Amino acid sequence: MYKVGVIGDRDSIIGFRAIGMSVFDTSDAVQAGEYLRQMVRENYAVVFITESMAEGNLELIRELRSQKLPAVIPIPSITGSTGLGMRQVRESVRKAVGMDLFADPNEK
Q: pLDDT digits over 68-91, tens only?
């Protein structure tokens, strides 16, 4: 059976426990990477990870994107977004359709 989990600092992720997700509390990017590897071994289907922890593990996340599971989804922390999640969505859409659908037409 597949599971859903979340990695990040306690204040940002504690609410996910209330909806039945496994919660991995850390403010250390190295430990976040260890948790992510553990979740891969334990057949997690979806892993939400705070953007600050994801930024410290971009190489591992890129490797995991070539696999079917888990889907690794960066989410903002309680302190706000770094923009990583949106950048990754833009990149995925650009690869899929060949253009940036999120581009501001006024940007040059």
A: 999 999 999 888 777 787 777 777
